[in-house]
Amino acid sequence: MTHSDFDITPPGSPRQSIWKELKDAIRGTESDYTKITIKKAVFLLSIPMILELMMESTFAVVDIYFVGKLGASAVATVGLTETYLFLLYSVAMGLAVAVTAIIARRIGEKKKREAGYTAVQAIFIGLLISLPFAIAGIFYSKELLLLMGGDEWSIEYGYRYTQWMLGSNAVIVLLFVINAIYRGAGDAAIAMKVLWIANGINIILDPILIFGFGPIPAFGIEGAAIATTIGRSTGVAIQLWVLFRGGKHIRVGRSQIVWSTTIIRNIVKRSLGGVGQMLVAMTSWIFLMRILADIGSEAVAGATIALRIMLFTLMPAWGLSNAAATLVGQNLGANQPERAESSVWKTGIYNMYFMVSVSVIYFFFNEQMMSFFTDDPTVIMIGSEWIQILSYSYFVYGWWMVSVQAFNGAGDTVTPTKINLVFFWLIQIPLCWYLAITLDWQHSGVFWGVFVSETSVGLFTLWLFTRGSWKSMKV
């Protein structure tokens, strides 16, 4: 292997500094990701995706930091509400997986107008799927919290948070879907900038609306939801403005704002596997939270804070994985399956290095990270234990993230769904219940059950990827 294999400077041009390439990645380029070197393609796509997701997770951490000042029951309310949001995320993310794969394939085939039509139909679908969640949240928020085992404070005071988050869920869905359009097209820099603005607004408004400021009253936990709604609504408005104005790789014209049953049918068909895949994983988490709720509010709070910390540190890894999905889709569209596979292996190596470094931090500094968000010793103990246990599996988890996204980028969303069904529903849930309740390991049983199931699913998915059936998928 020569030095040129690792050179991200275009052949024949003057050598550019890494800072120039970094600026290009953040600003966005019109590079053809099916032709430039794989290393450069991964760099240009993953950097904005990493920064985008890190900002999203930064908001999640800041949000739980301020809510944590309101007490364990407030944190538990956020955690219980997120179990329902996870259902929404599973649908939105499943749709986003299909949209990214289809848009990437159309861009790889040099069919930009068809990509524009697909984008419009994806937005229509996103609006439709948000309706039932909005109705449930607005009219049945107390019942939903009660169903998940919420305590008296959650049902009496925290329900307004649930009402806002579920009632305004359309902005969450559209953020997922439209950013998936940009990622599939290769306009990852646009997706990054949108989330930076949306979550920047969230972070500024969070303490103001939760605790009050000047003439603005303190809304408590409800303020966190209001801040999120305002920030994400602003993000969606920017997304739509840019989409119709035109990005580097995709643009939607007014003439394309029409209903296309054919395209919608294709998106829904591809989405079913992605939705099923996410739904299995997310509902598994709902069952785990229900087990933890039986153990106590401290267990829910500890798990909720730990999850926010893990999401924050996982974002760079998901950014790399999303880059792999785009590269697989575009290279398969350009009829270059071997280049698509090579992109996955190189991205996987980068991800492995990152995840190993994160696991070291988790192992040694878990208590310090938890104590930043709460001073409750029980909550700190529970959350730090989970962080440490999961650090053992991060080496495998990094490869799992990339290999799953490779399947999704190819349009094969059914295979990961089947894998998740077996490992999460048939293995993880019964195992966690057995360890936590039957053997009375309490919260530790849930955490060790997650470790066993997710390590196993990672190894199996990577093995299945090497079989290569995803290369023949038609989208």
Protein topology:
Blueprint: H1 18-27, H2 38-68, H3 72-108, H4 112-147, H5 152-167, H6 169-185, H7 188-211, H8 221-245, H9 261-295, H10 297-333, H11 337-371, H12 377-391, H13 394-410, H14 414-438, H15 443-465
Summarize the helix and strand pattern as letters: HHHHHHHHHHHHHHH
Structural class: mainly alpha
Distance between the termini: 34 Å
Beta-strand residue percentage: under 5%
As for the number of domains, it is 1
Q: How many strands in all?
A: 0
| Tally of DSSP helical segments | 15
**Overall geometric form:** globular
Uncertain parts: 1-12
Q: Can you summarize the main beta sheet?
A: none
Mean pLDDT comes to: 85
Gyration radius, rounded: 22 Å
Helix content: over 70%
Give your account of this protein's structure:
The longest helix has 37 residues, at 72-108. With 475 residues, the chain is mainly alpha-helical. The chain contains 15 helices and no strands. Helix 3 runs antiparallel to helix 4 (112-147), helix 6 (169-185) runs parallel beside helix 8 and helix 10 runs parallel beside helix 12 (377-391). It has one domain. Mean pLDDT is 85; it is low at 1-12.
Short précis:
The chain is mainly alpha-helical.
Properties at a glance:
475 residues, mainly alpha, 81% helix, 0% strand, disordered N terminus
